[in-house]
Amino acid sequence: ELQRDYKILLLGAGESGKSTVAKQMRIIHAIKGNAFSAQEVREYVPVIYANVLQSLCAVLEYMAGQGLRLRSKARGYAEEMAELYARGNCQLNPQLGEKITMVYK
User: Fold this and answer.
1) Structure confidence at residue 33 (pLDDT)
2) What is the number of alpha carbons within 13 Å of residue 13 lying toward its C-beta?
3) Cα dist. 15→18, 29, 63 in Å?
4) Closest C-alpha among 82, 73, 81, 80 to residue 102
5) Contact 47, 75 (CB under 8 A)
6) Could you please report the per-residue DSSP string of 48-89?
7) I need a labelling partner for 50 at 20 to 30 A (CA). Which of 25, 82, 89, 93 fits?
8) Average pLDDT, integer, range 64-77
9) In this predicted structure, what is the pLDDT of residue 32?
10) What is residue 105's DSSP assignment?
11) Mean pLDDT across the chain, nearest whole number?
12) What is d(CA 105, CA 71) in angstroms, rounded to the nearest whole number?
C-alpha cells in the first residue's frame, strides 16, 4: 500500500481549536493505538484536567445567568470546584471526580 504524507496549514484565532483538530487527526489515524508517546500523555493530562474544570465552570456560569440553581449538595461541590479552578489547582483525584459527577447529575 502506498502511503502519502500531506501537510495541512490550520489557520484561526487563538483558542479556536487548531491544536485540537491536529490531535484528533493523530488519534484517528494512529496505527495500533500509538497516537501519543508516554511523554505526550503525561504533558496532556494537566491540560485535560483543567479543561474539565473550565467546562464545568462555564456550565455553572451559564446556569447562574439563566437563574437556574443546583441541588443544595451539588451547589457546595460546584463552589469548591470553581475555587479550585480560579486558583489554578486543576489536579483531579477520585474524590473530586465523584463531586464533578454529582454536579452534572
Assistant:
1) 65
2) 1
3) 8, 23, 23
4) 73
5) no
6) HHHHHHHHHHHHHHHHHHTT----HHHHHHHHHHHHHHHHT-
7) 25
8) 88
9) 63
10) -
11) 82
12) 10
pTM of the full structure: 0.62
Q: How far is CA 73 from the centre of its chain?
A: 24
- Cell of residue 41, nine digits: 500523555
* pLDDT tens column, 33-70: 677 778 887 888 888 888 888 888 888 889 889 999 88
Q: What is the DSSP string of 6-63?
A: --------TTSSHHHHHHHHHHHT-STT-SS-HHHHHHHHHHHHHHHHHHHHHHHHHH
Three-state DSSP class for residue 93: coil
